[in-house]
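Input record (one chain):
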Amino acid sequence: MRICLVTPASPGSHHGNRVTAVRWRAILRELGHQVELVQDYHDHPADLLVALHARRSAEAIRRFRAQHPEAPVVLALTGTDLYPELTEADHPVLELADRLVVLQQLGVQALPGHLRARTHVVYQSVPTLPPTPSPAGPPSPEHFDVLLLAHLRPVKDPLLAAAAARLLPTGSRLRIRHAGAVIDRELAERAAREDRENPRYHWLGELPRSQALRLLAASRLLLLTSRHEGGANVVSEALAARVPIISTRIPGTVGILGPDYPGYFPPGDPAQLAQLLVHAETNEHWYHELHHHCTTLRPLVAPERERDSWRQLLTELAPARPAGDH
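The corresponding structure, as predicted from the sequence alone:
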């Protein structure tokens, strides 16, 4: 089958939607399909459209539906589509899709009831990395390293980590390393200032994904400070790397880690975050509880699980295609 895969994120971007789209292209090709990855849809020959982001891909979906009224459309909903809530403007685009994809189980609940039956949960996987030594080395004995992988944009609330770092006790060994691209210039200026003035916070700028994953593997914790997420790639990456997570209690993370996970704090609360960071550093039993919980969830992000999810979704759509149309 010829599949047109649309993501608004530009080639070479390290944004989550691009990372997801590139991985899905590989999965769909592995399943035997021809896949073209584009930023928009303009007359590309295709038997199926897969589009990420309801709002930014809305015109692409409408064009494809007008040109191919019988061909199926799969729409993957991102964090800004689902949260803080769906708007009325999104509903017409959702109705055009034959299947909807969300990245964690609570995403289904954010949709109107009549759309839930056509919605698939596809957990994001992390391909197995070559077993080569990490240049970042093992976790530092001198520091309790916490990694924040977040681009500098308001929805990520990236400077919350620096604010929490200022509240840590004097004897703490905790060090926050933050990697992310500049989206918001004001936040970049603040991050640079924190890097200069806050000895526990280090902004590393944008890193290649491979380098970021190596840094993650050498960290004691992954930190997620977002106000909203659809289902963050970094959570899957931490689970695959066996690195425990401290996160804001938001549906996009609770839908992956579960409601009983002990490592949540309220969005926008640096004091609560600081308390959890100290607890992870000083309470070995609690840290191992986080680690055990994340280890048990590792199968959720296995590549074969994501591949099987796509196989099932496409099998459901197959009867809608003419026989032999591959």
